[in-house]
Amino acid sequence: MLFGLSVWDIIGILVVLLIIFLIPTILRRRLISGVNKQVFELENMVTESKKILIEISKEKGKPVLDPTDTIEDFMEFFIVPPVDLDPNGVLRKFEKLLDLGEDRFKQMIKKIAPLADENTKSNLTMTLKATLGINGVAKQVRHNLELAKKTGNIQILLMLRMGLPLIMRIVRAQYEGVKSFSQGKPIGDGLGPLVAGMLMRDYKTEYTKDMEDMRVVKKRYDEHDVFIIRAKGPGARIGKVGKVVTSVIEDENIDKIITIDAAVKLEGEETGKVAQGIGVVVGGIGVEKWAIEEEILKKDLDIDAVIVKMSPEEAISNMNQKIADAANEALQVVKGSILNSKKDTNILVVGVGNSCGIPNIVDDISQIEIKTLKQ
Fold first, then answer.
1. What is the pTM of this model?
2. Domains of the chain
């Protein structure tokens, strides 16, 4: 007996104390093991994405030299954001950096796939961007894992472990996007160009203009001159929406703008839900949207917005049937907005999004390759 405790009491206390001291070690090892599996999956996605890029480059671009090392080196490419302590003019700085970045991507594709046609080069550019995105996430997750191992910091591991399910959802969809871009299949974010392409049906060919990777078509509809803008297809392009829209506003005396785009749905909302509102629906960091809004203020234009809701995963992976069906509904909403406008006004319709796999004019939605339910 010790302090009135039996041998079994003392053994029980020692076991409890041992468990208390061992729990952090056990927890750390389990967390590291779980995160390790996810990191390996991320790094495998990067490897497979690079393989896809290399294979398409060799098959369609016919480079003189093996593009493997060139692509590997480009995985470290980055763009340094401009200083934003003085916000005046920061968006113009962003615009300049984005233009320079886009030029660098085009130079890279010319290097690894010099004989590819323009649509294939556009698809390769998007494939490269998606691969870079996955690579960046994989490196960041690996960094946090190694930092937690080095410092023994359970808090870092817990935050990483809790955040990984959401991260992996997006990255897996991004990986599917790599496959879609490389094969020229439409993605959910192609909703805007799809609706614009359907609106272009039966247009007269006297007015067609290509600007900054975008197509501009003029069509007479219900006593209105309707100007339709979308990224050129079927290659994967987004185009410089802000620059083209502001140019058309200036040149064509536009009275009203209707923008169409994919939008992120909330959990619990239905994919393919169409909504109408007011404003400029253009994604990205805000450069394109800012340029359009500045012009709207100067000209005092009416602005309608049409969105189709989808998850972030659906936006960057192969377009499904629900989104394709929603395009028909969104088209009717756009037509209704045109019909409700004042007579003899000039209306600009902008289909915002990625044009991968979507022809410039869509006579029938069966023209595009939609993801089947079994996939």
1. 0.88
2. 10-183 (no CATH), 188-367 (3.40.50.1470)
